[in-house]
Amino acid sequence: MDGPLEWIAAIGTMLAAGLVAADLGRRVTGFGFVLFCAVAITWVVSGLTSDALPIAAMNAVLLLINAYGVWQYLLSPKNRKVMDRLEPVAERIEKQVEAEEAA
Fold this sequence. Notes:
Layout: H1 4-22, H2 26-49, H3 53-75, H4 77-102
């Protein structure tokens, strides 16, 4: 289990984790979950083709969890409406907090 497929999956997993951890907004986090889904599929394929069934099973479950993340952050109509209304308020609050920290 040390071929190009595994390296692509490993690097993609690290990038996805970085996108989610960076907390750069809902859209970036959502695309982090999209990348997590893509690499989970890659890990499942890798696990099945190299008889690493625990890796395949774990990533099949992670694929479902990350697909839910994509729904929550990018596709849910309700969450989109809520975030559209919160965005202007959140920007104002963020500026206030930055000003407080600078003082």
